[in-house]
Amino acid sequence: MTLQVRSQFPVLSQTGSEKSLAYLDSTATTQKPLCVIDCMDQFYREHYSSVKRGVYRLSERTSQSYEATRTKLKSFFNAASESEIVFTRGTTESINLVAWSWGRAHLKAGDEILISALEHHANIVPWQLIAEHTGACIKVLPCDDNANLCLDLLPSLLSDRTKLVAVTHISNAIGTINPIAEIIQIVRTHSQALVLVDGAQSAAHTPVDVQALDCDFFVCSAHKMYGPTGVGMLYAKYSILESMPPWQGGGDMIDRVTFERTTYAPPPARFEAGTPPIAEVIGFGAAIDWLNQTGLAQIHAHENEMLEYALNSLGQIPGLRVIGNPTQRASLISFVLADPLDPQTVIHAYDIALILDEEGIAVRSGHHCAQPVMDRFGVAATVRASFGAYTEAWEIDRLATALRRVLKIFG
Ligand SMILES: Cc1ncc(COP(=O)(O)O)c(C=O)c1O
């Protein structure tokens, strides 16, 4: 096994009467290493204060730690400057920020927003809301039966009317790794559209260089990157951020307030109204340190090893159908299991997940906030097993054994 980091994750190292947990739900959220937990604990115990407002030393130190995370994110994603990094509550809020700030200012009736068939609801619904508000419309780049996006159709969907292309880097429902650099190149050749990359599933799995990619927006969530919940990031090119009006008003996002008129702070402060999640931002910084120390390349290699092992192991289970066969797959497998007594139907994903839970296995079942993906593949729900830096082969073995038990129960 390439990586040996499991002991750094307290939730996964608990001993007691229960079997140790086989945690196969890292696509939903990753577990947290001790260094992230300790960093936040220490902040609350020893350094807690607000940011930006105090001149006393405690607050100054906190402000420095808070801003240090911005610098870490700038380097991690190779942004041109810290001012291009906006803290948000997560991917969902980052996309809503772009929709309600950039979208409301720049979209009008007849404009088009292009998304893909593989999007999470977070990269569909905000665009529907802003389209309703502005009169813009939404187009969808389809995918083929393997869950690869139909890139040959992309040029024909782009025109002068296309103002934004919002596409996921990695599909959370199937695992497709989209050829994002190629997509951006095609968009640049055939339109003036801006490109938003939903990096919720890629940020902790594969190196991302926003300047090399030349994306306009990149969004992610700390909780899927071994960091805390409640914090995430919007990266945007500074010239674009500068052209965007505030989307939320309040403290810290202003330059000068009078009852007659308010002027706003420059980015990123313009988009960070109110007291931020301070401990979470600092914990996000600790997670970035952990990712750098562990090495994204090592994490990627380890996850690929686990993926290959799981594809091989699950492939031997009678009636198990993996959904999608993308050219490049991230470390997750979505599948359905045929009912042994009626092979034309499948065992409900929730029933499978409940039985797996009895065996100490945590998987996700359902539509994975990607109902259009489920519709595309003609299933109501799937079971999804997903892997992270701490996944070990015994967890996949336990899953395979438990799935055979499911077949016995239903047989
Ligand atoms: C591809 C993708 N986009 C967006 C999101 C939303 O992320 P969050 O709930 O952290 O805002 C998720 C979460 O699963 C996701 O997988």
Count of DSSP-assigned helices: 13
Please state the CA-atom Rg, rounded to the nearest Å: 22 Å
What is the terminal separation in angstroms? 35 Å
Q: Name the beta content range.
A: 15-25%
Uncertain runs:
none
The beta-strand count equals: 16
CATH architecture of the largest domain: 3-Layer(aba) Sandwich
Q: How many separate structural domains?
A: 2
Q: List the bound ligands.
A: pyridoxal-5'-phosphate
CATH topology call of the largest domain: Aspartate Aminotransferase, domain 2
The largest sheet is: 7 strands, mixed
Look at the structure and give the mean pLDDT: 96
In CATH, the homologous superfamily of the largest domain goes by the name: Type I PLP-dependent aspartate aminotransferase-like (Major domain)
List the helices and strands and how they pair.
Blueprint (H helix, E strand, L loop, with lengths): L21 E2 L10 H14 L9 H20 L8 E4 L2 H16 L5 E5 L8 H10 L2 E5 L12 H4 L4 E7 L11 H11 L3 E5 L11 H4 L3 E5 L10 E5 L1 H5 L11 E4 L4 E3 L13 H17 L1 H19 L5 E3 L9 E8 L2 E5 L2 H10 L2 E2 L1 E3 L4 H6 L5 E5 L6 H18 L1
Parallel strand pairs: 1-14, 3-4, 3-5, 5-6, 6-7
Antiparallel strand pairs: 2-8, 7-8, 9-10, 11-12, 12-13, 12-16, 15-16
The structure holds pyridoxal-5'-phosphate.
The site of pyridoxal-5'-phosphate has 12 residues, from helix 3.
